[in-house]
Amino acid sequence: MTQSFSLANVVPQAPAMNSGIWVDRVENAVREYVLRATGDVFVFTGPINTKPVATIGTGKVWVPKQLFKLVYDQKLNKAWAFIVTNADDAIMPPSITYAALKKAVGIEFLPGVTPKN
Question: Which of 12, 34, 84, 93 has its CA 20 to 30 A from that of 48?
Fold first, then answer.
C-alpha cells in the first residue's frame, strides 16, 4: 500500500460524506476485506466528473459529482465497485459490477481480465 500511495487522486469531497459513509461503509469495508483475503487485491479509487463541473478555489479545482472505488481480488477473479454521490446527504448505494463501473467511468481498469460478479 505505501509503495503505491499518491496524492494525485486527492479530490474535494463533501465533508459529511467523506467522514460518514465513505469512511464507514466503503473504506473500512474494503480494508477489512483486504485483510481477510488470501491473495493479491487491487483497489482503484477516483472521481467521476460530469458536466457541468463545479469548481472551488482560485485554481478552479474540479469538484466531482461522484466518487468510485473498485475492488479486484485476483485469486478469486472477483470484482465489485461502489459509486457514491459527492454530497453531504449521500446515501449508500448497493455495490455494482465491474462492467457497470466501466460503463459509468469509461475506463478499462483490468485489461484482459473478465472478473466474476
Answer: 34
